[in-house]
From TrEMBL:
Annotated InterPro entries: PHP_dom, PHP_phosphatase, Pol/His_phosphatase_N, Pol/histidinol_Pase-like
The organism of origin for this protein: Anaerobranca californiensis DSM 14826
Domain Polymerase/histidinol phosphatase N-terminal intervals: 5-83
Superkingdom in the source lineage: Bacteria
Record key words, sorted: Hydrolase
Name of the protein: Putative hydrolase
Record-level GO cellular component terms: cytosol
Example GO molecular function: zinc ion binding
Stored Gene3D superfamilies: Metal-dependent hydrolases
Length: 240
């Protein structure tokens, strides 16, 4: 299996180590046809990227496109869920500039009033199975609402650090043609999630979630999971 594009990579603009250009150069070196810069939306604590900086990233990508014609460079974002209704933190001025919309559920979000029910219930989840079930329901509802509200291309690392009903989320994604991510930084532990999601007919992207240029296009772990679960090639959107 060959993966032709990496749509989820970070840079110095958040907590990554390299520049956009370094990610692009590594993607070319690895033989990729497409590379996406997907920085964190503004609301994630400490590493969120402001609206102003997101525009700067988009401008930088436009310039790099004329310099590196051999690869398609995409301006993506890894947006955050900010409430139970499925709203996300993409500034309205950014939305029309995006090539792809990625959404991830990051628990470390600016604790605004509307985020509190999610923060509170996820905090309680570790104390009893009843609380855990409640958190799982709310988390899933929030993600499904986002999938139905926006045209999301990829849900990043589903189930990472939060409890979700994978089957329900995958069903909603399959209906809306939203893909789930097989994230190469999460390793073996996401195999169970992928296995459950697969049954709902949802499609997947294998992404590196690189936080340094050396990791761009490093798909080994994701490919390993896809092989172990015998995922048909047509279910991996970015394979050829
Ligand atoms: Zn993430
Ligand atoms: Zn990420």
């Amino acid at each position: 299996m060959k993966i032709i594009g990496d749509y989820h990579t970070h840079t110095k603009y958040s907590h990554g180590k390299g520049t956009i250009e370094e990610n692009v150069v590594m993607a070319i070196k690895r033989g990729l046809k497409e590379i996406g810069i997907a920085e964190h939306g503004p609301r994630v604590l400490f590493v969120g990227v402001s609206e102003k900086k997101l525009h700067k990233i988009a401008d930088e990508i436009e310039n790099l496109r004329t310099k590196y014609k051999e690869i398609k460079i995409l301006f993506n974002i890894e947006a955050n869920l900010i409430d139970i209704h499925g709203n996300i933190d993409v500034p309205p001025s950014i939305l029309p500039r995006l090539d792809m919309l990625l959404v991830g559920f990051h628990p470390n979000i600016l604790p605004t009033y509307h985020y509190l029910p999610l923060a509170y219930n996820n905090f309680l989840a570790s104390f009893s199975s009843h609380n855990l079930e409640k958190a799982r329901k709310l988390n899933t509802m929030a993600l499904v609402n986002a999938v139905n509200k926006y045209k999301i291309d990829i849900i990043t690392h589903p189930g990472h650090r939060i409890h979700i009903d994978t089957g329900l989320l995958a069903k909603a994604c399959a209906n809306r043609n939203t893909a789930l991510e097989i994230n190469c930084r999460q390793g073996e532990k996401i195999k169970d999630f992928v296995e459950v999601a697969l049954k709902e007919g949802v499609k997947f992207y294998i992404n590196s979630d690189a936080h340094k240029p050396e990791d761009v296009g490093n798909f080994e772990e994701g490919i390993e999971i896809a092989k172990k679960l015998n995922i048909p090639k047509e279910f991996i959107v970015n394979s050829n």
